[in-house]
Amino acid sequence: TADLPGSLESLMERHVAPHVNDDLQLETDALSEVMAGKRMAAVLRRHQKELERIYTFYAAGDQSLAARGALDSLNVKEMAMLCEDLCLFDSKYGAREMLAAFVRVNIDDELYEAEEEGEEGDGDESELSYSEWTEMLVRIFNGREWAHLPKEERGSGDFEMAFSGWIDNCFVPTAHVAIKQKKRSKGTG
To answer: Where are the domains of the chain?
Structure first.
């Protein structure tokens, strides 16, 4: 028992960490690798202005007392509101899939929260930063559209370009309509 801390550390390094990283792929998966690529970075830069407007609007959506301090991030309630407003929930992609994606995007925050010895957390483990939110959009696109498209219809298999087209033709126009409706309903009642 004299070397219990060393034994626990060894157990973590040799068994738990490889299981989390390799077997369960809790931190990175195929979509995480796509997100880290240059092509996806270019797609997100191209759409940044419009996406930031939508993100900012929905980040302020939860007006509960607890959420008012986090107006620069999206919580799960605000993310669900966005999905409902944009009719993103359907038979292929529902609240369960959205919640699973939300957890996956935030898993690194949860896994390493305890590692910061002596530091107070910022309390945003259950909030999405802008970059985490864009990863959520990629995961929503994958779950709603790409995963259900027959491989022969994917053409060259260019996920990033298909995602960009979805942002242009579906997500942004639908978000603009939803935001206008929300603003109009707030102004009249």
So the answer is: 29-188
